């Protein structure tokens, strides 16, 4: 099977790009979608702030034209706001609504949201039910293996979620207390797969064909979700998806293609946020593009990244990036003098 069905939505691929706070904004989703990504979720959207219309939160769920699929991820701890958030997400054009029970960040778990909900299965069930009842669109759930090594209840929560009407489940192969340390335990995700009949998506440490193959084999999952592996690589869903379908190998874009993708992504960021904020927001992406560039050494790429990320004029930055790519090596003094 080369695709995935979630409720009434057919996703033409088995590589999904995760919701990532501060990363998967509209310009990033547009960049990935233009490369052929079939599924790219929004940043995490707080339901209560979303329902109250806070501009920064609404912007995270910006729909935008030209996206093949609109996936809005919601986070919260009160059933009323979860239901309202799900309804608003549907009204905003969401094809799929994802409920976050996986975020390990202290500011999220400290507010009894995200992965903290895995410690309270009754509350988690009420919130999942509220999301499902609040919308006619398919609701999915993203979570971790559990709170810690002694509290791995993902299979139980998955079974509850399926009974409540959730249409697919994504599991990051770590506990909350691990954050992103150690290695993702893909084998443990197999327990979730055995507990439900709906699609299961495995997440964590998947960056290439070898890790995707291993994650799928060990978990028995139906698809993979890429998070940090997509940093500076908005093409990964398409290239990895094609490799999985064909049995390998996986290719990466050539140097010229990467430059075009980078410049297109930068232009989208400037249009969406305006020049000043757009440059600031894009710096993290720029750094990842440069770190992954197919030239120079890790040291020279870090030097180029530092130089480029200090530029505060969009036109100057565009010229500097083009010069770096044309040279195919790092020359920090010429870059700084552009």
Give an account of the 3D structure.
With 338 residues, the chain is α/β, with parallel strands linked by helices. Helices cover 47% and strands 13% of the residues. It contains 15 helices and 10 strands. It has helices spanning 26-34, 47-52, 55-60, 79-91, 106-109, 121-133, 154-164, 186-195, 209-219, 236-246, 255-273, 275-291, 298-308, 314-327, 332-336, and strands spanning 4-6, 9-11, 15-17, 41-46, 71-75, 96-101, 139-144, 168-172, 200-203, 223-226. The strands form 2 sheets. The chain has an 8-stranded parallel beta sheet. Helix 7 (154-164) packs parallel to helix 8 (186-195). The protein is globular, with a radius of gyration of 20 Å. Residues 329-338 have low confidence and may be disordered.
How would you summarize the topology of this molecule?
Elements lengths: L3 E3 L2 E3 L3 E3 L8 H9 L6 E6 H6 L2 H6 L10 E5 L3 H13 L4 E6 L4 H4 L11 H13 L5 E6 L9 H11 L3 E5 L13 H10 L4 E4 L5 H11 L3 E4 L9 H11 L8 H19 L1 H17 L6 H11 L5 H14 L4 H5 L2
Parallel strand pairs: 3-10, 4-5, 5-6, 6-7, 7-8, 8-9, 9-10
Antiparallel strand pairs: 1-2
Helix pairs in contact: 1-11, 4-6, 6-7, 7-8, 8-9, 11-12, 11-14, 12-13
């Amino acid at each position: 099977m080369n695709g995935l069905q979630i409720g009434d939505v057919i996703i033409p691929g088995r590589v999904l790009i995760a919701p990532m706070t501060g990363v998967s904004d509209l310009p990033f989703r547009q960049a990935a979608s233009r490369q052929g990504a079939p599924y790219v979720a929004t940043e995490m959207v707080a339901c209560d702030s979303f329902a109250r219309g806070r501009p920064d939160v609404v912007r995270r769920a910006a729909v935008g034209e030209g996206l093949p699929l609109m996936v809005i991820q919601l986070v919260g701890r009160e059933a009323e706001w979860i239901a309202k958030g799900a309804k608003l997400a549907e009204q905003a054009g969401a094809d799929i609504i994802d409920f976050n029970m996986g975020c390990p960040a202290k500011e999220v778990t400290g507010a009894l949201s995200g992965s903290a909900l895995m410690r309270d299965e009754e509350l988690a069930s009420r919130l999942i039910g509220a999301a499902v009842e609040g919308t006619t669109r398919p609701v999915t759930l993203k979570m971790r293996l559990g709170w810690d090594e002694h509290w791995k209840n993902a299979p139980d929560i998955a079974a509850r979620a399926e009974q409540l009407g959730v249409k697919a489940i994504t599991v990051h192969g770590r506990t909350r207390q691990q954050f992103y340390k150690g290695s993702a335990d893909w084998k443990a995700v197999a327990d979730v797969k055995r507990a439900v009949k709906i699609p299961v998506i495995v997440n964590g440490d998947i960056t290439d064909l070898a890790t995707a193959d291993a994650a799928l084999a060990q978990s028995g999952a139906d698809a993979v979700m890429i998070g940090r592996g997509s940093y500076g690589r908005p093409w990964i869903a398409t290239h990895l998806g094609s490799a999985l379908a064909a049995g390998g190998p996986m290719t990466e874009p050539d140097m010229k293609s990467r430059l075009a993708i980078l410049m297109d992504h930068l232009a989208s960021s400037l249009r969406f946020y305006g020049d000043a904020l757009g440059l600031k927001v894009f710096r993290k992406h720029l750094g990842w593009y440069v770190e992954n560039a197919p030239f120079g050494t890790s040291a020279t790429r870090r030097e180029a990244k530092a130089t480029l990320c200090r530029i505060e004029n969009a036109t100057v930055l565009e010229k500097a990036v083009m010069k770096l790519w044309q040279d195919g090596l790092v020359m920090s003094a010429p870059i700084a003098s552009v």
